[in-house]
Design brief:
Distance between the termini: 38 Å
CATH class of one domain: Alpha Beta
Strand content: 5-15%
CATH superfamily of one domain: Type I PLP-dependent aspartate aminotransferase-like (Major domain)
Radius of gyration: 24 Å
Order of helices and strands: HHHHHEHHEHEHEHEEHEHHEEHEEHH
CATH architecture of one domain: 3-Layer(aba) Sandwich
């Protein structure tokens, strides 16, 4: 039996790859025509996996590929759909799909610069572009790719700890004269609690400060918390402002937070995992005023830059702090390369996938202006959705220049009513939104423009589906087949 490329005996790898190419093209062309959601019980998926894949005997690669494609099409909430108005999960640019394929093919190891010169320099070049949108006068080497925002926020915490308490790196928190404290708003991302846990500070080290009526961090309450902690012998060292909260897209008062950090000698970190992309859009950049005063920034490319998961970015304008926080030396690693920095001594990760290629290729294909137009178009769709909702009797309960819209109306303004409406929407499967509970507001529905393909027809579809779900009518055979019990579901 002859072997094809890659050693797959008896199979034509070229034919399998051709089929995969058709799968990609078909999905990109037809994803608007698919349902956003096909519900299927977990036990049914497990039964089918157990019956088809016991791993006792080898299976042909072509048939495995077909089965996996079928499962992903049927058993997935399609976040790439233009009528998905959910969390920060956009469709991916075709350049990103090609990039991830190339990464899998060449599989460069980025821990040491000398093992992957091209990959490391492509990433450095790409990161410099985005760093300059935060700090226009920045030098190169201020950024690194991460698995996502959680790792970037953890990196910021470690860098701030090491910078603020030079003995922390060797002796840990137990060597310090008090308990370190850091601060974010009650609407900040809960990865910060995990980061406090991971570093050994304990979750109590994070003080979640109340927000004002506009849902941004209350600076006076923050000042009071810092004063209280200092009086009790604790050690404040870090403030985290959010640029685009997950629930409501709110931007904390960054200039005021920056001024407080200067006054109190605290590290200022901005979690701009989603909202950071406004930095590249001229019409939106002013809303992030103050981010240029941050010591470090979290920014996720996979949230609003339309590249595949996961592609976080961590930026730090204190190179000495990064070097101290992530230092490592061992004889089994290659020696340093003159003029280059090895990622394993300047980031949290050691072995790492070539994360940055998908962003590099997408940016190269779009160009600066094309990227800005795409981002600004999504903001415009957010404004259109606000107008359509208001015209149809909904109340907007958040204020943000970014395309996150929280809304409600009488009868759909408590947890049970919101949950019931969502279930009716999900049964129909044509759009997807979520529910939130906001300080000073209570329960609301939440819609976010996540797709660069979302257009006015998708916005109108959402408003129409909301009206039908709110009135609990016109469900009929629009339910997914799996809910009707069809045999071929």
């Amino acid at each position: 039996m002859s072997e094809g490329p890659g050693g797959y005996a008896g199979e034509d790898l070229r034919a399998i790859l051709d089929d995969l190419s058709q799968e990609i093209l078909s999905f990109l062309d037809l994803r608007r025509d698919t349902r956003v959601l096909e519900e299927i019980p977990p036990e049914e998926m497990r039964r089918r996996l157990a019956s088809g894949f016991d791993f006792e005997a080898p299976l042909p690669l072509g048939s495995v590929r077909e089965s996996v494609s079928h499962m992903l099409r049927r058993w997935t909430l399609h976040v790439t759909h233009p009528a998905y108005f959910g969390l920060f999960n956009p469709p991916v640019d075709p350049a990103g799909i090609i990039a991830d394929t190339l990464v899998a093919l060449y599989n460069p190891q980025l821990a040491a610069w000398s093992h992957a010169p091209a990959a490391n320099e492509i990433e450095r070049h790409t990161l410099d572009f985005f760093a300059k949108s935060i700090w226009p006068d920045t030098e190169s080497g201020t950024g690194s790719f991460t698995s996502g925002g959680a790792e970037a926020n953890l990196s910021a915490l470690i860098a701030a700890l090491t910078h603020s308490f030079p003995s922390f790196g060797e002796g840990g928190a137990r060597r310090l004269p008090g308990a370190p404290r850091f601060y974010g708003s009650e609407e900040s991302h809960h990865s910060l609690l995990k980061a406090a846990h991971f570093t050994g500070l304990g979750r109590e080290a994070l003080r979640l400060v109340k927000v004002g009526s506009g849902l941004g961090l209350d600076v006076d309450a923050l000042q009071a918390a810092i004063d209280e902690d200092r009086a009790e012998g604790h050690l404040p060292f870090l403030v985290i402002g959010t640029a685009g909260t997950t629930s409501a897209g709110v931007i904390d008062p960054l200039p005021e937070l920056a001024a407080l950090c200067v006054r109190e000698n605290l590290w200022f970190h901005v979690d701009a995992a989603w909202g950071g992309t406004a930095c590249v859009a001229p019409r939106l950049r002013s809303h992030l005023s103050g981010i240029e005063q941050a010591d470090s920034v979290t920014w996720d490319a996979h949230k609003w830059l339309s590249v595949p998961m996961g592609a976080g970015m961590f930026f730090c304008r204190k190179p000495g702090a990064r070097a101290a926080a992530f230092r490592a030396r061992t004889p089994y690693m290659p020696g340093e390369t003159a003029g280059a920095i090895d990622p394993y001594v300047s980031t949290m990760q050691w072995s790492r996938r070539f994360t940055g290629l998908k962003l590099f290729m997408s940016l190269a294909v779009l160009g600066r202006e094309g990227l800005a137009r795409r981002v600004e178009s999504q903001a415009e769709m957010g404004n259109l959705l606000r107008r359509r909702l208001l015209a149809n009797g909904w109340e907007i309960v958040n204020s943000s220049p970014l395309p996150v819209i929280c809304f409600r109306r009488p009868g759909v303004d408590d947890p049970a009513a919101c949950a019931a409406l969502l279930q009716r929407l999900y049964r129909r499967g044509r759009v997807w939104i979520s529910a939130v509970s906001l300080p000073h507001v209570g329960s609301a529905l939440r819609a976010c423009i996540t797709s660069y393909e979302t257009d006015p027809s998708d916005v109108d579809l959402l408003v129409t589906e909301l009206a039908k779900a709110a009135d609990d009518r016109d469900l009929g055979d629009s339910e997914p087949a799996i809910l009707r019990g069809d045999a071929d579901a």
